[in-house]
Design a protein that fits this description.
The structure holds 3 protein chains of 3 kinds. Chain B is α/β, with parallel strands linked by helices. Chain B has helices spanning 17-28, 44-47, 50-53, 56-61, 102-105, 115-118, 120-128, 146-160, 197-208, 255-258, 260-263, 315-324, 418-427, 471-489, 559-578; strands at 3-4, 8-13, 33-36, 74-77, 85-86, 168-169, 172-173, 214-215, 225-226, 232-233, 269-272, 276-282, 289-295, 301-311, 348-355, 370-373, 392-397, 431-438, 447-455, 461-466, 495-499, 542-544. In chain B, strands 1, 2, 3, 11, 12, 13, 14 and 22 form an 8-stranded mixed sheet that branches. In chain B, strands 8-16-17-18-15-21 form a 6-stranded antiparallel sheet, with helices on one face. By secondary structure, chain C is mainly alpha-helical. The chains are: A mainly alpha, B alpha/beta, C mainly alpha. Chains in contact: A-B, A-C, B-C. The interface between A and B is large, with 73 and 87 residues.
Chain lengths: 249, 586, 418
């Protein structure tokens, strides 16, 4: 609603105001903003990660994210891991979009460092942090082990992730802990957010824990103490979000 | 050169709860009212439609409906010897932006403060003696009593359709309600919400350890409701998306679901969105407000003349505006003199996570679906041997089970990997959490002023917050957490993860958006910014609403008290409009 | 309240009182009657609201009663006329007889025939006194100088005299004659429904020429791409299950224990029927409840797979408000089970509501205007067909299944109205 529309405050009726384009365009704009527009529904398989051409990640970065997130959330007896859940695609779209650009963050200098209680004080956006940190981790791996992170074995990868978590790797301006915290937070988001954002594929994360999705009526269920809730999993875009994201529904 | 708009009788800065109430009351009195809102207009349909709003990532994680620190934030430090640094993104608290304000995204936990809370200094001195109060603590009476506010609490509760069980009607204790609450003249407008499995667990355990549990008052409608303005609400469906979200079902009280359908039709009310007020203007005496200046979405600076100005923005924004407008004497921590920015307070929270075997389906919930105990709030218990002032409630809130932010894992669960997956799998449906929600007093060293370095999008200095938890608050919170732990221990077969609030206050993790003070109300102009009618001591045609007027914070969510104070102030404003001038002689 | 696209009444042929540029050009003294005595003006306002005159005779964002509102008809577009007292472009020079002739016979002051989108086939029933009062009220409106817009109709409809043929075939002028076997209350109801209320303009089936079936005038009909349901006594899709009080509540407030007004009817309630007196609403209810039920056709049973698909969509999209079992929520959200609106002969109103969303009319007594979001983007034609089929056949509802092409056609029509 523009200021002019609302000058007299009487234009709250929405009949004349185009509110939404299509649901899909709306989601795309929220998710990805301009760089990724049109790519959400892309099905071309050019050998890149998870069947999609990354929007933000280079192939090397995508390989790192594939490998690191699969260690953070592995495939095991409880089901698929980060790769099966589409988390690289999720992260790729997030970093290409408003979040990656820190669009809502206060990013004016000066940039002194502060206490833990004062929180984030880096002049880098999440996209810049990922880009720089991945490059430095891979450089470290090449130097120490002769190959990038993605090509190391699982045990070694775990060691490195623990080192990041404990702040024991030097990533230049970016504290290793900051990068790890961001990566792990965003990985969980990709696993547990609505599948409309391209992660949590086939409801992998929600199936693991038993969250049915954004259902809207538990009036009759809430007092069924101790009983499992049975309705099928659902997303903001219906019961088959993958089809939706492919543009088939 | 600023463009000048046509004058109005009353201009409201912000268009959330307090502005909606003031606008409704004053337009009924025949006055022309204009609200200026920095955010956008939004309403149940289409903005909170359920295929849109039930999106944890977008709203709760990326914080889409809150204020954007990109444009204006504050700087923060724990103590005056540090350099305050900008809060780069939201964390500890989440101020709203947009029509409806925080009334859109709140949980609906709608409490009354205790009678003693309003006379805390007098009460404490009487019961425990003057020496009981720490030297650095600015403990102050409010200048208004619970009995004076009672009719206004009642109006707000009936406006919102609060669901609950009364504990004290006219001095007579009521079964099932909060036995500690102040006397109310009648019961809640709606019966309590349905119980969930987890609130049942809490109820039983709390009884077992000898406490007095009751259903927490909820501005989530337990039944379809029509308020005194004729505005309708639908029954809550327990979808679990209240806090951080707008309600898609007309079930959570907000300006949109309680007032706006009536207010927006009035010829003597208007509002403008995306208008960021940057100054309250005064005449050359500095004793009379002439209106406000705001910046519109195109960056134009516009002057809006008005005969009366009411600050209805979020607590610290009201204080920021007063400081930028040089109204009232800014607080100086070195001398202890001055009032604007003094009495900043917050709340101190902790939790005890509970892990047990029964399926709880945490995702079925409502923002104010909770069972609580008030045995350790205010002065409901003997503080003498404990040595601290204040208290809080302990409650199990079943607000929802949104998977990213609302899962609980045992203390020994691996932080990632297969062990994390297993812990998620094993605990999501069966874990719950008991919360404590404690008061924070005001101190000489906790305050708001203007930052010397960083500026907002409009070129104004950012507000600077200097705040830390004090020993009194840590002692109180630890005690409260111990009581919560007792309840957790009475839940059969359960293990716990006690999460005390240790160390310095941090602006990083979310705690609560109950920031208060900075424009305290009171009876003495040397320790308060506004009088007991929320009228500025310095500029009588300026009023300040909201939690910014709290002299210190109590152990409850503040919205109920904010609503009551707003109705109370609206009555005073009507008197003022008939006969302008100071309502209290200093 | 914002006017919605779509008028409260639709007729097959354009809007009446079309002076169509043929404004009398005789100069000289205005023979406009002076505003009548207060009681007459007040009563006129009541009737003008009852007839919802303003809805058609006011363009979107236009001056009240100055006309210019485009009314799409299957035959072309017609524009409503200026009925403000402006002497040159309105009806300021019309005297009482001129106005009565227009209302009673469908003939304008200059003798040209009006198109029956102006509901003179109903207004002919009005008493002379009532017509006089309507004119008295209109004369108190602010005169607006605004020339009428010529209708865009194909030949031969563009020839005014062709309407003489139409009138000869389908129109009988005549005031309402009371049925002596019925009560005064019933007769008052019949007078309002068949006269100024012109209910069958929407709720009646129209023939190819746009005339309402005189034998079954309230058996349901299409209006603005939605189906105005039968007002006869059918248990399933009529008012058979409604009490008199339900009808009074619905017309007075836009909602009752059974349902809420949607689409064009929501506008009719908020602009017209809510202003009717309680005795008149009661009289209308008494009359409508006297109408017999038509014989009901059997309907086909929906395919089980379609019902499963519909049930899933209902759970995912509708159940939050309309609740499990389609019970709705008394006092807030309409019931779908056992609802005549849902089981109407044609599902168009239901489909349109799902596609576009809707809001209960906001009135002074019920200011909220509880709204339903649009699902037209989220659900495709197959989805909506399955969902509406399910809603029309679940929980004991019994109405014909809906096909995807029904949804597709309506979606298209709503996208390109007119």
């Amino acid at each position: 609603m523009s200021v002019r529309d609302s000058q007299d405050g009487k234009h709250h009726g929405r009949g004349d105001t185009p509110r939404r384009t299509s649901r899909r365009n709306f989601l795309r704009s929220v998710l990805t903003a301009t760089p990724a527009l049109g790519l959400l529904g892309c099905t071309s398989n050019d050998g890149s990660v998870q069947g999609r051409a990354p929007v933000f990640f280079t192939p090397q970065e995508a390989a790192f994210i594939d490998a690191a997130t699969q260690r953070l959330i592995p495939a095991d007896t409880l089901g698929g891991g980060a790769n099966e859940a589409g988390i690289t695609t999720f992260l790729d779209l997030q970093l290409a979009g408003a979040y990656g650009r820190a669009e809502r963050w206060y990013m004016q200098g000066p940039w002194p460092s502060g206490s833990d209680q004062q929180g984030f004080q880096l002049k880098y956006t999440p996209a810049q942090i990922y880009r720089d940190a991945i490059k430095r981790v891979d450089a470290h791996c090449r130097q120490q082990h002769g190959k990038p992170f993605a090509q190391l074995d699982g045990a070694r990868q775990d060691e490195l992730l623990h080192a990041l978590e404990q702040g024991k790797l030097d990533l230049g301006d970016i504290p290793a802990k900051t990068f790890f915290t961001m990566l792990w937070q965003n990985t969980q988001e990709g696993y547990l957010a609505d599948p409309a954002y391209s992660g949590n594929r086939d409801f992998a994360g929600w199936k693991l824990i038993g969250f049915p999705g954004p259902r809207y009526n538990y009036v009759e269920d809430i007092e069924q103490f101790g009983k499992p809730y049975q309705a099928p999993f659902v997303s903001l875009v219906g019961r088959d979000p993958s089809a939706y994201l492919r543009g088939e529904s | 050169m600023a463009r000048r708009e046509r004058p109005v009788d009353v201009v409201l800065v912000g268009f959330g709860w307090t502005a909606a109430i003031i606008a409704q009351e004053l337009t009924e009195a025949g006055v022309q009212v204009l609200a200026l809102e920095r955010g956008e207009f939004r309403d149940t349909v289409p903005d909170f439609a359920t295929d849109t709003i039930q999106d944890e990532l977008r709203y709760a994680v990326r914080k889409q409906i809150f204020e954007s620190p990109e444009r204006e934030t504050l700087t923060f430090r724990n103590s005056a010897d540090q350099t305050a640094l900008p809060m780069r993104h939201l964390g500890s608290f989440m101020p709203a932006a947009g029509v409806g304000g925080a009334g859109v995204h709140w949980n609906g936990q709608c409490w009354r403060f205790l009678p003693q809370d309003f006379e805390i200094r007098t009460h404490t001195e009487q019961r425990y003696g003057k020496k009981f109060i720490p030297e650095q603590m600015n403990l102050q009476d409010w200048g208004v009593t619970y009995d004076e506010l009672e009719p206004h609490y009642d109006r707000f509760e009936y406006l919102c359709g609060v669901s609950g069980t009364a504990g004290n009607i006219g001095g007579v204790k009521q079964p099932g309600g909060n036995p500690f609450e102040g006397a109310r003249k009648r019961g809640y407008p709606l019966p309590p919400l349905k119980r969930s499995a987890s609130t049942m667990l809490f109820d039983k355990a709390a009884r077992e350890v000898g406490f007095d549990p009751f259903p927490c008052p909820a501005a989530n409608a337990s039944k379809p409701y029509r308020n005194p303005l004729g505005v309708q609400m639908g029954q809550c469906t327990y979808c679990g998306y209240c806090e951080w979200f707008g309600c898609g079902n007309y079930s959570k009280a907000s300006p949109q679901t309680t007032i706006l359908p009536v207010l927006l039709k009035k010829d003597n009310f208007s509002y403008r969105t995306r208008c960021n007020v940057t100054r309250v203007n005064t005449d050359n005496t500095g004793k009379r407000a002439t209106g406000v200046t705001y910046v519109d979405v195109d960056g134009n600076e516009i002057e809006q003349p008005a005969a009366m100005v009411v600050l209805c923005a979020f607590a610290q924004h009201n204080v920021h505006l007063l400081l930028l407008s040089r109204i009232g004497t800014p607080y100086d921590p070195a001398t202890g003199r001055g009032v604007v920015g003094r009495n900043y307070a917050y709340q101190i929270t902790s939790s005890v996570d509970v892990f047990q075997k029964e399926i709880l389906n945490p995702f079925m919930g409502a923002g104010a679906l909770g069972q609580g105990v008030d045995n350790f709030n205010g002065d409901n218990f003997d503080h003498g041997p404990l040595g601290f002032i204040g208290g809080g409630y302990i409650a199990l809130w079943n607000t929802g089970g949104r998977p990213i932010l609302q899962h609980h894992l045992p203390a020994d669960a691996p932080t990632w990997g297969s062990g994390w997956k297993k812990a998620m799998h094993d605990n999501y449906l069966t874990a719950t959490s008991i919360a404590t929600h404690g008061s924070v007093m005001s101190y000489r060293s906790n305050y708001l002023d203007l930052d010397p370095t960083w500026r907002d999008d409009y070129g104004n200095p950012l507000l600077r917050l200097t705040f830390d938890f004090q020993p009194n608050e840590h002692a109180m919170s630890d005690y409260l957490t111990d009581q919560a732990t007792k309840i957790a221990q009475a839940i059969p077969g359960a293990t716990h993860h006690v999460k005390k609030r240790d160390g310095h206050y941090s602006i990083v993790p979310y705690q609560t958006t109950h920031n208060t003070g900075g424009a305290a109300m009171g009876t003495d102009p040397t320790t308060s910014v506004v009088n007991r009618y929320l009228q500025s001591w310095d500029v009588p045609n300026l009023f300040v609403m909201g939690a910014s007027v709290f002299p210190q914070n109590a152990g409850y969510n503040p919205t109920g008290t904010v609503g009551a104070l707003t109705f109370w102030a609206a009555e005073a404003m009507k008197r003022y409009l008939k006969n302008p001038g100071p309502l209290v002689t200093a | 309240m914002n006017a919605r696209p779509g008028l409260a009444i639709t007729l097959a042929l354009g809007v009446g009182l079309c002076a169509a540029g043929a404004v009398a050009a005789n100069a000289g003294m205005s023979d406009r009657t002076s505003p009548g005595p207060h009681a007459s003006v007040q009563h006129g306002r009541y009737l003008v609201r009852a007839g919802d005159c303003m809805a058609c005779h006011t363009a979107s964002n236009g001056a009240p009663y100055a006309g210019g509102r485009a009314v799409p008809t299957p035959f072309g577009t017609i524009y409503s006329t200026n009925i403000t007292p402006d002497p040159d472009t309105g009806i300021g020079r019309w005297d009482g007889d001129d106005f009565y002739r227009a209302m009673h016979e469908g003939i304008a002051r200059d003798g040209h025939r009006l198109y029956p989108a102006f509901p003179y086939p109903w207004f002919t029933k009005l008493s002379r006194d009532d017509v006089r009062d309507i004119k008295a009220y209109l004369d108190t409106r602010t005169p607006v100088r605004q020339r009428d817009i010529a209708p865009k109709l194909p030949w031969p409809l563009s020839v005014r005299s062709a309407m003489a043929v139409w009138d000869a075939m389908y129109f009988d002028a005549g005031s309402y004659r009371a049925n002596p076997e019925k009560s005064a209350q019933w007769n008052r109801g019949a007078y309002l429904v068949r006269g100024v209320g012109h209910c069958s303009a929407c709720h009646g089936d129209k023939n190819f020429a746009g005339a309402v079936d005189a034998d079954h005038p309230l058996g349901g009909g299409f209006a603005e791409h939605v189906f105005a349901p039968a007002l006869t006594g059918g248990q399933r899709d009529g008012l058979g299950q409604w009490s008199e009080q339900d009808i009074v509540d619905y017309l007075g407030t836009g909602r009752n224990a059974i349902t809420t007004a949607a689409g064009p009817m929501a506008e009719v309630v908020s602009q017209s029927t809510r202003y009717l007196s309680k005795p008149d609403l009661r009289a209308i209810a008494v009359y409508l409840k006297s109408l017999p039920a038509p014989p009901q056709d059997d309907v086909a049973t929906a395919d089980a797979a379609v019902m499963r698909h519909g049930a899933a969509l209902y759970l995912d999209n509708c159940e939050g408000c309309h609740r499990r079992g389609g019970t709705g929520e008394a006092g807030a959200f309409p019931r779908l089970r056992d609802s005549s609106a849902i089981q109407a002969e044609h599902p168009d109103t239901l489909i349109a509501t799902i596609l576009r969303g809707d809001a209960v009319p906001a009135t002074d007594a019920d200011p909220t205007g509880l709204a339903m979001p649009a699902f037209g983007k989220r659900l495709d034609d197959d989805d909506i067909a399955a969902l509406t089929t399910y809603i029309r056949q679940a929980w004991g509802n019994h109405a014909a299944p809906v096909s995807s092409s029904d949804v597709k056609d309506l979606r298209e029509k709503l996208r390109h109205p007119g």
